[in-house]
Amino acid sequence: MIHHPGKVVAVIKPSDDDVSSADNITLAVVKMWDENVLTLVVDERIAENIREGDFVLVDYRPKVLGQNTVVPRQRIVKIVRGERARKIWEIYREYFKQQKTKATQHMRPYIG
Q1: Could you tell me the residue ranges of all domains in the chain?
Q2: CA distance to 58, 66, 73, 108, per residue, from 8 (Å)
Q3: How many CB atoms lie within 10 A of CB 74?
Q4: I want to staple 76 with a disulfide (CB 3.0 to 4.6 A). Which of 15, 19, 42, 112 is the partner?
Q5: Closest by alpha carbon to 27, among 4, 109, 19?
Q6: Superfamily of domain 3-106
Q7: Cα(49)–Cα(17) distance, rounded to whole angstroms?
């Protein structure tokens, strides 16, 4: 299974006073471990529990849309809080920093 951690920046519920919604889907704006920012669907089974500042796991398993089309699900399926959440976040962030450093070291300066 492939799941990626993220941190919730904002929650958008269809019942919010400042939201007009054509559906009953709860969305969350999430800053991912690799600095991407995404607005994702929150699984309806945990939608009432999600809040700003939560750490979440996003389901990235492949979803088949057609005969030759496969995309990641990108659905928030778990909320993780407390020390466990911080530990997961830090492991991924440290890995990302290491990857950025390696990529920078392999770049050669332009000499014109």
Answers
A1: 3-106
A2: 11, 31, 18, 37
A3: 16
A4: 42
A5: 19
A6: Nucleic acid-binding proteins (2.40.50.140)
A7: 18
Closest by CA to 46, choosing from 23, 16, 77, 21, is 77
9, 61, 18, 16: which is closest to 40 by C-alpha? 9
Burial class (CB in 10 A: 0-12, 13-18, 19+), 40: buried
- Each residue's pLDDT expressed in tens, for the chain with a length of 112 residues: 699 999 999 999 999 999 999 999 999 999 999 999 999 999 999 999 999 999 999 999 999 988 889 998 999 999 999 999 999 999 999 999 998 887 777 666 666 5
Q: Which long-range contacts (CB under 8 A, 24 or more apart) does 10-18 make?
A: 10/52, 11/42, 11/50, 11/51, 11/52, 12/39, 13/47
How many other C-beta atoms are found inside a 10 Å radius of the C-beta of residue 86? Answer: 12
